[in-house]
Amino acid sequence: MRKVPDQAVGNDSFDIETYLRENPLAPPDTSSPRAALESYLLLMGEADRIWRNIRSEFQNSSNRFLTDEQEHRLTFVRALFEKAAGIFDLDGIPDTARKSASLEVVLQFQEILDRIYLPAMENIPGAHAGSFLNSKAISNLPERWKIPGTDIVFERTDTPGNGSRFLITKASVDRIPEDYELIKSFPSRQDKGDDLYAYYIYTPGNLVAPKWYNLIRSGPDWLGQQVLSQAYWQWIALVLLSVLTLCAPILFHRWSRWRAVPLSDTRRKLRGLQIPIIVILSVLAYRYLIEEQVNITGQVMIAVGTISTAIVWTATGWLAYRIVELISAWVIKNPSVPTRSLDSSLLVTAFRLVGVAVAVLVIGYGATQIGIPVYGVVAGLGVGGLAVALAAQPTLENLIGGIILYADRMVRVGEFCEFDDLAGTIETIGIRSTRIRALDRTVITVSNADLAKRKIINYSRRDQFLLKHRITLRYETSEAQLNRVIAEIRAFLEAHELVADEPLRVRLMELGAFSLDIEIYAYIQTSVRDTFLEIQEDILMKIMEIVHESGTDFAFPSSTTYLAQDSGLPADSRNWIADHLSGNPAPDSERQAS
C-alpha cells in the first residue's frame, strides 16, 4: 500500500482514526485533487492495515466464525472503503449494484496506484487532506487534473447542497477495470503483500474467507482457475443457486395446486399472497448467498443484481396488488362494514384500480433502482400522448362505458336484464367488459361501451308484476252468468292482499268470433318473479273455479256450419229451357203472357 509522507499532510498531524471517530458521517475531503487523492490514500492505508490483521488472526485461530470484536473491526473497514469511494463519480453504476461495484473500483484503484508513479503531494493542485478549502479557494484551482501517465482525471463537479468537489470522472471510473487488467501482472512498488482485489473477488465471504473455503482450496486446482473475473467454483455455485432459486417458487406453486381450494373467498385471496412472498424471499436469499458467501463480482454481479432487483420489485408490486384484493374481499364480506348501500361489483372494480395503481407505483420505483428513467419515460409520454390515446381508444371507451354503467346504475350484478337480442343475469361488471349468464346457462361477454349504447330492459328493478289475461266464454253463456263471472273475479282480486287496488280491471272487452272475451288487468305487489308466478297460478285456478261454478265454460276456436236442401228452378224456367232444346220455341207474346 502506498504510504502518504508525513510532510504531505501539513504541519499538523492528521490522525485518520481520530477524525473518523469524531466525524463518522463526514465525507472525504474532495475540495481539491490533492485532498481527494490524499484522503483516499489515508483511508485505504488504515483499511488495509486493519483488514490484513483480521485475516491473519482469523486464519491462525481455531474459531469457525469471526468473533464479535473482529466483526466490529471489519465493519469499520467497510466504512473506510465506503468513504474512500466518495472520491469517485459513481452515477453511471445502477443503485442495485453500486455498493459491491464501488468496493471493486476502490480496490482496483488501490492496486493501480501501487503499481504506477505518483508525483509528490505538494506538486498536486490544492491543499492537504482535512483542509476543506472554501469556495473561493476552490475557484482558483484548475477545472481538471490528470494523474501523470494515466487517463484517470479528477474534475470539478458541482453538486446541489455539497458545492464544488473534485471527483474522478465517470469515464475514468469506467476505465479503471481495464487499467487494472493491464497492470495487475506488474509488481507492486510499495509492498510485498498479495493483491487485495484478487483476494476479494476469488474468495467467498465478505472480505474475510470463511473456514469452509479450505475445502475448495484442497480440491482440484481447476476450481481456483479464473474465467471472466470469476473462479470456476464461483460459476458452479452461481448456476446451482440460480437453479434452486428458480425451482423453489415453481415447486411451491405445484404443491399449492394439489391442496384443497378454500371455500372462503378471503382465504383464497390470503393464499394468493404466498407465491409473491416465496418469490421475494427466494430472490433475497439468493442475492445474499451470491454477494456475501459466493462473492460474485464484476459485471456478472451487476447483471445478477439488476435482474434480482427487478424480480423483487415486480413481485413486490404483485404482492401489493394481492394485498389490495385481500382488503377488498374483507371489506365486502365483513358484516361490520356497512356495504349494503354500495354496489359490490363497483367496490371490486374500484379496489382493482387501486391495486393496479399501487402495483404500477411500486414497480416504477423499482425500475428507478435499476437505472431505468421512469420519470423521464412518463414525461416523454406527453410527446407521444396522441399516438397512445389513439392506440388505447377502445380500452378507454370501454373504461368510460363501465363508469357510465356505474354512474347511471343501469345494471347491477345479479339483475336479470334484456339487451336488444340478449337476455340474462349480470354476473360481473369489469373494467373493460360485462359478463352475462344467459337463460341457456352460456356466458355472454359484452364490452362496456357496446352495452352502454344498447336499450336495456331491467326486469329486476320492477316493484310490481303486471297480471294481464284474457279469458274466453262460450256464446251460450247467458247475461246473468256473464255478470256473475265478472263480479266474482273482481271481488276475488279486490280481496287479495297482494293485488294492487289501482289499476284493477275486469271487463267484457269484445264479442269475438267464437267467444265472449273478458280482460283481467291488475298488478301483483312483489318484485320476486317466483312469488309472482305462484300468485298468478292461484288466481288462474280460482278463475277456473268461478267460471265452472257459474254454469258456463271456456270457449275454444270453433265454427258453425248450416245445412239446407235446394228446391231447383221454377216451372216456367224449366219449360222455356225444354222448348229451346226441342227447337220449337214459344211465341214472344205467349211467353210474355205466361
Describe the structure concisely for a colleague.
It is built from 21 helices and 13 strands. By secondary structure, it is α+β, with helices and mostly antiparallel strands. 26% of the residues are buried.
How would you describe the shape?
Answer: rod-shaped
The percent range for strand residues is 5-15%
Can you count the helices? Answer: 21
The residue fraction in helices comes out at 40-55%
Distance between the termini: 163 Å
Which spans have pLDDT < 50 for at least 5 consecutive residues?
5-12
Q: State the secondary-structure class.
A: alpha+beta
Rg for CA atoms: 48 Å
User: Strands of the largest sheet, in order across it?
Assistant: 9-8-7-6-10
Largest sheet: 5 strands, antiparallel
Mean pLDDT: 81
Number of strands: 13
Q: What attributes does this structure have?
A:
alpha+beta, 3-stranded antiparallel beta sheet, 13 strands, 52% helix, 12% strand
Which helices and strands appear, and what pairs or packs with what?
Blueprint (H helix, E strand, L loop, with lengths): L15 H7 L10 H28 L7 H17 L10 H19 L21 H5 L4 E3 L6 E7 L3 E6 L1 H14 L12 H7 L10 H5 L8 E2 L2 E2 H27 L6 H7 L2 H21 L3 H36 L10 H26 L4 H7 L4 H7 L1 H16 L7 E4 L2 E8 L3 E6 L4 E5 H6 L2 E3 L6 E9 L5 H17 L9 E7 L4 E9 L4 H21 L21 H12 L5 H6 L1
Helix pairs in contact: 2-3, 4-6, 4-7, 4-12, 9-11, 10-12, 11-12, 12-13, 18-19
